[in-house]
Design a protein that fits this description.
LysR family transcriptional regulator, LysR_HTH_N, DNA-binding, alpha/beta, 7-stranded mixed β-sheet, 287 residues, D-Maltodextrin-Binding Protein, domain 2, two-stranded antiparallel ribbon, Arc Repressor Mutant, subunit A, LTTR
Length: 287
């Protein structure tokens, strides 16, 4: 018994007429008659009888009516629930070096307030900002450009020198022949140019081992003791050490923000933004 035939049968039970049923169901009278005959064939017993000018349901027809009403109600309720529980798909960008620290808290807070499904994109901040402008992303966690006030501030962080702990001894020895082996993000990263400028000012020898837009590549080189990298303090993995470098000037601070794109995100209201920022208040990083 298909759903459309059951809906037709319920209408027929209410009208007692093929003609009126056809009008209400926007079908021809012959189509209604065929549906009723098909139902009777499936049940194997008469569902209605002629009673004067009207057709009346038999006891079997009355039992089928009860089942049909339950089936249609269950179908409609399930459809309504499923249609309303479909999550909004949000295209969320985040630099790879924030993916293990900043991103989980953002996703957690946003998911508590509304049904969302996230499609994640991990790229450098400058690429994420371009994708926001082009409408390819809805939201992005990014490092705010210097002197910019765009985005919702999540965290004010600062740069640190990061390496395997064994490199700390070499730095501490202050051997003039020692050269800092650097593995840095690409030159669009604020820490790239500032770290080189700081080493030059302190007259420290250095050489670039590698540059990459992928945090995992820099982490891998640092873990093997092959390089020193520069990260935001909140992005430092637990198995790497923050180096003590008193001979060097401090690396710059950065603002990590949640930047909306051009799409209208009605669910991202002031209350949700305030809640998100409050969640990061407890994680403010101080040098």
């Amino acid at each position: 018994m298909d759903l459309e035939s059951l809906k037709t049968f319920i209408t027929f039970a209410q009208t007692g007429s093929f003609t009126r049923t056809a009008a209400l169901r926007f079908k021809t009278q012959s189509a209604i008659s065929m549906q009723m005959k098909k139902l009777q064939g499936e049940v194997g017993q008469p569902l209605y009888r002629q009673h004067g000018r009207q057709l009346k349901l038999t006891p079997t027809g009355l039992r089928l009516l009860s089942h049909a009403q339950n089936i249609v109600q269950l179908h409609d309720a399930a459809l309504l629930e499923l249609q309303h529980c479909q999550p909004d798909v949000v295209r969320l960008g985040c630099p790879a070096d924030y993916a293990e620290t900043i991103l989980p808290l953002v996703v957690s807070i946003l998911s508590q307030h509304t049904k969302l499904q996230f499609k994640l994109c991990c790229l450098p901040s400058y690429q994420l900002l371009a994708m926001l402008d082009d409408g390819q992303l809805d939201l992005a966690v990014v490092t705010r450009k210097p002197a910019s006030h765009e985005g919702h501030l999540l965290l004010r962080d600062y740069g640190v020198w990061v390496a395997k702990q064994t490199l700390q001894q070499q730095i501490g020895q202050r051997d003039p022949s020692w050269s800092w082996p650097l593995a840095l993000f690409e030159d669009d990263c604020q820490f790239h140019q500032s770290s080189i400028a700081i080493l030059n000012k302190a007259q420290q020898r250095f050489h670039l081992v590698a540059t990459s837009s992928q945090a995992s590549a820099l982490f891998g080189l640092a873990r093997q003791g092959l390089a020193v990298t520069v990260l935001a303090r909140s992005s430092v993995p637990d198995d790497l050490a923050i180096l003590d470098c008193p001979q060097l000037e401090a690396l710059p601070s950065i603002d990590i923000v949640l930047q909306p794109g051009s799409a209208n995100l009605s669910w991202l209201d002031t209350s949700l933004v305030n809640h998100l920022q409050a969640a990061f208040d407890d994680r403010t990083i101080c040098p």
